[in-house]
Protein: MarR family transcriptional regulator
Organism: Cytobacillus solani
Amino acid sequence: MNENQSKFFHSINQFTRHFSKSLNEVLVPLGLYSAQWTIIYLLKTKGPATQKDLSLYLGVEAPTMTRTLARLELAGWISKVPGTDKREKKIILTDAAIQKYDEWLEAVRSCEKNLLKNVGNEEISSMMEIIEKMNRNL
């Protein structure tokens, strides 16, 4: 791997850390953390999911997911309901989370807009293509 590639991956790592911090700054006052937001966003856009499905999709270890889901459940943002398999439970958003979702989404979109203010649509499309290619290699 050449130096440019190393810098590329270092930049991605640094950006994701700073982006999570920025998201936390707008979400924490609304009662949510960025890691929790990813789960809520996924449940809202893709529908109910098992804990295993969430862990696999987000690339999060099972114990970490268990803790995050426990906090979301304690806050009243998710609940667990029986799935088609008796051994698995589906995780769904509560009515309280659905009511709060637009407020969270607005805060996230505001943060994203600020980060993208000097970035064009073509650049975003190019980056999406690169990310998709790299994801296929994981």
Remarks:
- The first helix runs from residue 3 to 27.
